[in-house]
Amino acid sequence: MDDYYCDEVLSGKTMVKKVFETDHVLAFHHTNPHWPVHIVVIPIIHIPDLLSLECDDQLLSELFSVIRRVAANVIKEHGSCRILTNIGGYQDSKHLHWHVIFGDAML
Fold first, then answer.
1. Beta strands 82-84 and 37-43: pairing type?
2. Exposed e or buried b per residue across 68-95, where buried means at least 16 C-beta atoms within 10 angstroms of its C-beta
3. Where are the domains of the chain?
4. Per the confidence metrics, is the pTM higher than 0.85?
5. Do residues 98 and 84 lie in contact, with contact meaning Cβ atoms separated by under 8 Å?
6. What is the dihedral of CA 50, 6, 41, 21, to 10 degrees?
């Protein structure tokens, strides 16, 4: 499976616990979390990765607005967070996404 987010989450095959949603962006709790708090933020349209993102100022603004909102909530509750994205071999699902996380890795 190359794109878990399109194939499972956005198609509705896999139900997720939503954190926040706009017309173009979805934030939800990771279905297989690696940290105590592990929220994923994705664009609703398919974009393979950060390098493939065309300069769409509206989508970028909306993505980062949601990431900031989710991060602010995690910081309010836990005092800190990390935000990360993966590209290339590190990216399991070939759909642009960010992880908003709190806690030490449990890998």
1. unpaired
2. ebbbebbeeeeeebebeeeeeeebebbb
3. 4-102
4. yes
5. yes
6. 130
First to last CA, the chain: 21
Q: What is the pLDDT of residues 10-35, one digit of tens each?
A: 999 999 999 999 999 999 999 999 99
Residue 1's pLDDT is 54
User: Is domain 4-102 classified as CATH 3.30.428.10?
Assistant: yes
Q: How far apart are CA 106 and CA 46, in angstroms?
A: 29
**Dihedral (C-alpha) 33, 86, 48, 39: value to the nearest 10 degrees?**
30
Given strand 98-102, what is the order of strands in its sheet?
Answer: 18-21, 25-29, 37-43, 98-102, 82-84
